[in-house]
Amino acid sequence: MADYSQYQHIKVEVSGGVALVTLNRPPHNLLNIRMHKEMADIPRDLNHDDDVRAVVITAEGKNFCAGGDFELFSRHKDNPTAKALGFEETREFIWNMIELEKPAIAAVHGLATGMGCQLALLCDIVLAADDETTRFSDGHMNIGVPPGDGGALIWPVLIGLARAKQYLFSSDPVSAREAERIGLIAQAIPRDQLLPTAMEWATRLASGPTRRLP
User: Fold this and answer.
1) Model confidence over 4-53: pLDDT tens digits?
2) What is the separation, in whole angstroms, between the first and last Cα of the chain?
3) Is residue 171 part of a domain?
4) Mean predicted confidence (pLDDT) in 147-157
5) Of 56, 72, 179, 212, which is least packed with CB atoms within 10 Å of its CB?
6) Mean pLDDT of the chain
């Protein structure tokens, strides 16, 4: 089993082949400098953990992940070196999620914005709480920058280029029910069933033939 003790804002519990990965900077799980790096690293570490056969990603607090915080944006504003490092971390995050060989299920409640939104959408199965608070949005255009963190990649794949442009250019939020209707996520379900359903899927997949034969 891998050692996840170095993570400060992400909690990992492994049992029965399932890694329960919890974003743990409540109430909004806003990305600071440390958490941004951890988001890039965690899929790689899960990929290399032989005890993990499936992954569930969820979050503590009110929101799944409401985007970046002031510390993160301030680092990038006037520091070209820090900005380049941030871009490199983001590229690592995208590729590490794409290359994650273990099936991943996202259980989303509240706001999923920016990198937090892409973290969910880059998972294999996305479940979301069917309530008034759950919303998906890229959010980058609200601060005058192009869609990022893999948003320009995954939104068109899931819902088509024309519809993806509508949501990425406007940063309009998408409710869980609408996200299910347009194919952005797999299913909108009652909040009290969200994590149990995700764990059921993960347990089922972890029990299946997930390893390549020689």
Assistant:
1) 999 999 999 999 999 999 999 999 999 988 999 999 999 999 999 999 99
2) 23
3) yes
4) 81
5) 212
6) 89
Specify if 2 maps to a domain.
Answer: no
Q: Considering its fold, how many domains does the chain have in total?
A: 1
What's the pLDDT score for residue 141?
A: 62
For residue 92, give the 3-state DSSP assignment. helix
Q: Is the pLDDT of residue 214 over 70?
A: no
Burial 34-57 (b: 16+ CB within 10 A, else e): ebbbbbbbbbbbbbebeebbbbbb
Q: Would you say the C-alpha torsion 145, 154, 4, 15 has a positive or negative sign?
A: positive
Q: Is residue 213 part of a domain?
A: no
Q: How far is CA 27 from the centre of its chain?
A: 16
pLDDT confidence tier of residue 83, bands split at 50, 70 and 90: low
Q: What CATH code is carried by the domain that includes residue 30?
A: 3.90.226.10
User: Strands 135-137 and 174-175: what pairing?
Assistant: antiparallel
CB atoms within 10 A of CB 214: 3
Residue 150 · residue 118 · CB < 8 Å: yes
**For 157, left (φ over 0), alpha (ψ -120 to 50), or beta?**
alpha
CA–CA gap between residue 65 and residue 110 (Å, rounded):
8
Tokens 């020689």, residue located: 214
Query: What is the tally of helices (H) and strands (E) in the chain?
Result: 8, 9
**Domain with 88 in it:** 10-206
The torsion angle over the Cα atoms of residues 10, 151, 90 and 95, rounded to 10 degrees, is: 90
211 within some domain: no
